[in-house]
Amino acid sequence: MSRLTHAISRASRWHLFLMPLSLLFLLPLLQMVLASFTSNADINRFPPRFIPSALHISGYVRLFRDAPVGRWMLNSAIVSGIAIVSHLILCSLGGYAYARLSFRGRTVAFVTLVATIMIPTQMLMIPTYFMFTHLGLIDTLGAAFVPFLTSAFGVFLMRQFFLSLPKDLEEAGRIDGLTTFGVFFRIVLPLARPALATLAVFTLLNSWNDLLWPLIAINDPSKFTIQLGLINFQGAHHIDWQELMACNVVATAPLILGFLVAQRQFVQTMSMSGLKG
Amino acid sequence: MKHGILISDHEKAGGGGARRRHAATGSGAALAAGSDAGSGAGFGAGFAADDLGGAFGPGREKPKWTARRRRVVANLTGWSFAAPATLIILGLTLFPAGWAFLISREHWNGITPARQIGWDNYRLMLQDSDFRSAVNHTVLFTVLYVPVVLVLGMFLAIALNRKIRFISFYRTALFVPLVVSAAATGILANFVFDQQFGLANNVLRVLHLPQQGFLADRHEVMWVIALIYLWTDLAFSVIVYLAALQDIPTDCLEAARMDGANRWQQFRHVILPSLAPVTVFVGVWETISVLQIFELVLTTTHGGPLGASQTVVYFVYNQAFNLSRYGYGSAVAYTLFGATLVITLGLFAYARRSKIEAF
């Protein structure tokens, strides 16, 4: 009996610590959602209340009327979509080459590639801005996605995965008469699904949430990504908190829903990398 | 197809004899070079040989030609896989990195022609009190934040690593903020820490504690930003520690328990040492990312009030893209890169000296 109570108290000690902490972590998000449904009159009332007296969707109505939020979401979706597809193709091709193929200059190229991971983006943004100006990319959606076409980290990730694959299947494919490309597309890529999923999550998070680069490269409101739209929206209007929180919810919801659906994959991705810069 | 593969297999399997026979010819050399780099090379060589099989019949009558062709085809295949990613990455990093260094030695506003001024931008930096206070904020932030995130991350990972009820709820709750963008976090933080109707002051009011200025208070602003950053970032270290904890073999812990180690001793002598490499990794990672903190500052305070939350990267951004001082901005960015590199290498050297294999 005493052992049982002991076990219970030991378990509940963790609950006593984890329960309030996890609520604390959720509270801001809950507040965001609640505020987006609270009328501004209610938000500005003193003393403030956490639970609104009535729920209104007028914030969302105003949001979609005042700002091209649909366009911004579409832009973000385009940028992230292109980034993901191109990451999957280019990084797996590159990763496979550096893991399995032998060619002149392989080692030098790979070492240089990995070394570039250390170069911080802040150092690159000024010349990149002028480079893109010369290329006529500034203020186009191209400016937003070109830096996300591929990444040294992605190549590195895929290479590590391919190194861990057993070679037998590839050799079997060879004997069955496949070319190098055939082996890659028919045998290796289907086996790489978990690594590709991880890479896709990594790319989605990086491209969807990026703010610094679109901030520099895009001025035309119709080319804004949702993150850029969000912070411009914050500055442009006298603060309409309900509308702003609605915009926040719209910008954040896709990734949170994605996280809830594919939590395992997200956690896997995090444990393999650091994603926040 | 098969022909080529069989040749290369035969050569591999045939070992000494076959190899010696080809040693004088180029083909043997190609093969030897191939086997140095691993069996992928074997594929390449086989592939090349096979291509020739069709075009040049037996292919062994002109061994030198064959070997060269093989190598060319292997190189072409390899580069056709590697080139797209490699060229894009190098073009978007090495080229601008070199250019940034040139810009950092110029006086340039982006419109009028640049003027070469040598190291003047770097010299100016040393006297610039705004820059110095940005450095102070960043360093203070790093020194305070990184240890906290290491200790909290490790502790939370240990807490989340047990099989108790609601554990998946706890994990989800703690991990969700990781996917919330800096822009959304910043705007949400402005709302939560608003002086009049923000949740934070409201809680203080209910508890009968004095109201705070938070982001509007010069002395509190960096603390509040650190707290917000912790909200979005803590999960990263928790997840990395969690993965490491699950790699600790259970028999180690069991053996410790058998030897009569209590919970603290188990932690001190088994868990802590096996987490050392991960701690170095998380430490380096957090240091690098905290030194580069920018977006949260932009979306909460724009460096204010009165520059009290200006960080180094915010300073770079402001100099370059608000004040059009591109040369000066580049010089600061380069200095930040140098400092980060020194710190990172220093941590690596420390880890190696204390025999922690972090990478």
Strand content of chain A: under 5%
Overall pLDDT score of chain A: 89
Contiguous runs where pLDDT drops below 50 for at least 5 residues of chain B:
1-59
Number of strands of chain B: 2
The helix/strand order of chain A is HHHHHHHHHHHHHHH
The strand order across the widest sheet of chain B is: 1-2
Structural class of chain A: mainly alpha
Characterization of this structure:
The complex is a heterodimer of chains A (277) and B (359). By secondary structure, chain A is mostly helical. In chain A, 75% of the residues lie in helices and 0% in strands. In chain A, helix 3 (58-66) packs across helix 14 (241-261). The termini of chain A are far apart. By secondary structure, chain B is mainly alpha-helical. Chain B contains 16 helices and two strands. In chain B, strands 1-2 form a two-stranded antiparallel ribbon. In chain B, strand 1 (106-107) and strand 2 (115-116) form a beta hairpin. In chain B, helix 2 (16-23) crosses helix 3 (26-36). The interface between A and B is large, with 108 and 107 residues.
Q: What's this model, at a glance?
A:
Chain A has 277 residues and is mostly helical.
Jot down its keywords:
heterodimer; A: 277 residues; mainly alpha; 15 helices; 75% helix; B: 359 residues; 16 helices; 2 strands; globular; disordered N terminus
Topology:
The complex is a heterodimer of chains A (277) and B (359).
Chain A: H1 2-36, H2 40-43, H3 58-66, H4 69-100, H5 106-115, H6 121-134, H7 141-145, H8 152-164, H9 168-175, H10 180-191, H11 193-209, H12 212-217, H13 226-236, H14 241-261, H15 263-272
Helix pairs in contact in A: 1-14, 3-14, 4-8, 4-11, 4-13, 8-11, 9-10, 11-15, 13-14, 14-15
Chain B: H1 2-14, H2 16-23, H3 26-36, H4 39-56, H5 63-103, E1 106-107, E2 115-116, H6 120-127, H7 129-160, H8 167-175, H9 182-192, H10 199-206, H11 221-245, H12 250-258, H13 263-291, H14 295-300, H15 312-322, H16 326-353
Antiparallel strand pairs in B: 1-2
Helix pairs in contact in B: 1-2, 1-4, 2-3, 3-4, 3-5, 4-5, 5-16, 6-16, 7-11, 7-13, 11-13, 12-13, 13-16, 15-16
